[in-house]
Write a structure and sequence with these properties.
The protein is mostly helical. It has helices at about 10-25, 25-45, 50-80, 85-95, 95-120.
Length: about 130
C-alpha cells in the first residue's frame, strides 16, 4: 500500500521562493557595501569629526548586514527547497560546489561585519548629565 507523501512542504516552498527573490539583489547590495566602505575609508583618511566618522561606520555596518542577509538567502535557495525541511539535505548541499561557494561567501561577509563591529566603529563619548543623582 503506497502512501502519498508531499515532496516539499508548502511553507518550505514559500520560503524558498522568498529567498530566491532576496538573493537576486545580492550583487547590488555588494556594490552598496563597496560604496559605503569607500566613504568610510575616505572619512578616516580626511580625519573627519568623530560624529561623521561614526555615521559612515554605521552606514557600512548596515550595508554589510543587508548584503549578509541576501547572501544567506541565496545560500538557502542554492541548497534547494527540500533543504528547508531536512537537515541532512542541507548538509549535503553545502558540499556541492555552488553550496560551498555561498557558504564561503556568507562566512566572509559575517567575519567582515563582526570585525568591523569590534574594531571599525568609533565609539561616541557618553554625555555626562549635568546633575548627578
Amino acid at each position: 500500500m503506497a502512501f502519498f507523501r508531499p515532496r516539499v512542504s508548502r511553507e518550505a516552498e514559500v520560503r524558498y521562493h522568498a529567498d530566491q527573490e532576496v538573493g537576486k539583489g545580492y550583487g547590488e547590495l555588494l556594490e552598496k557595501v563597496a560604496r559605503a566602505e569607500e566613504e568610510f575609508l575616505r572619512a578616516q583618511a580626511e580625519r573627519r569629526p568623530l560624529e561623521e566618522l561614526h555615521a559612515a561606520a554605521v552606514a557600512l555596518d548596515r550595508a554589510l548586514t543587508e548584503a549578509l542577509r541576501a547572501a544567506e538567502a541565496a545560500q538557502r535557495a542554492t541548497f534547494g527547497a527540500k533543504a528547508y525541511d531536512d537537515r541532512i539535505r542541507r548538509r549535503k548541499a553545502k558540499a556541492t560546489p555552488a553550496g560551498a561557494k555561498w557558504t564561503a561567501e556568507v562566512d566572509r561577509l559575517r567575519t567582515w561585519r563582526e570585525r568591523h563591529r569590534l574594531t571599525g566603529i568609533p565609539r561616541l563619548p557618553r554625555r555626562v548629565p549635568s546633575k548627578a543623582a
